[in-house]
């Protein structure tokens, strides 16, 4: 039997929250006319979610801004 530690519970919770968000904001709001149409709409939603929309969990930054900020901090630490 595999034991589920606190990390795996956090990952499971995060996955459930993300899946609920995708379902409520993208899948339930669109009528897909074809597989290609679904891919286009989902890609548009994913791009908005990752690059445009601020997230409260990362202090109101977009994921792209947060990643750039973390990379800058890392590069500053490495260059010292």
Short description:
By secondary structure, the chain is mostly helical. Helix content is 70%, strand content 0%.
Description:
70% of the residues lie in helices and 0% in strands. It is mostly helical. The protein has one domain. The protein is extended, with a radius of gyration of 17 Å. The mean pLDDT is 88.
Give the ordered list of helices and strands. HHH
Instruction: Specify the number of helices.
Output: 3
Percent helix = over 70%
What shape does the CA trace take? extended
Query: Oligomer, anyone?
Result: single chain
The structure class reads: mainly alpha
Low-confidence stretches: none
Rounded to an integer, what's the Rg over CA atoms? 17 Å
Largest sheet: none
> How many independent structural domains?
1
Binned strand content: under 5%
Total strands: the figure is: 0
Provide the descriptors you would attach to this structure in a database record:
single chain; mainly alpha; 70% helix
